[in-house]
Amino acid sequence: MREAPLADHILTTAIVSESAVHAATIAAGLGAAGHDRIVRVETFTNLFARLREIHPDRVVIALDDPARDLLEQLFEVAKLIRRPVVLFVDRSAPGMTERAVAAGIAAYVVDGLAKERIQPVLDLAMARFEAQHRLEAELAEARAALEARKLVDRAKGLLMKHKGISEEEAYAQLRRRAMNEKRKIGEIAAAVVTGLDMLG
Known about the structure:
Largest sheet: 5 strands, parallel
CATH superfamily of the largest domain: Response regulator
Number of helices: 7
Shape: elongated
Helix content: 55-70%
Distance between the termini: 45 Å
Number of strands: 5
């Protein structure tokens, strides 16, 4: 799926529902808000493949009969498409709200499908999705930085052992090589660790 849309991008909203009435209600709510492009998906069969074809910027799903197996399928799709997903259900079983949140469903609405609610719920879903996306990016960056620091520390230790130099000089060598090769110091440290580990 594409990454987050640009500001001038024509936004596409996929409506997924086997109910013509539910789909029309959602479309009316989106149309009133001036959405650029609306595509309806009338079946849940091969939903992930269908959404990959459409490349929607957000997905609104409505269920008449939220059977557990179907909900689990939708939760898996939501994890894969990495798009804001709003799920309207007529009723819900115990534990489904928690499962929806864990799957990344941005808004899980029980017995609340109405034209005037579509846009506010979608706005909330978009905001939640973007906040979660930023948080995940920050966490990934923090993890990468931590791993890089660990590699640098290990590389320094190996250089000190094999070359008999101080910690400061070991770090200076790593930094000089990174600058000369125009690479991140973590990448240089990984190469040093791999090379010196082989020497024993």
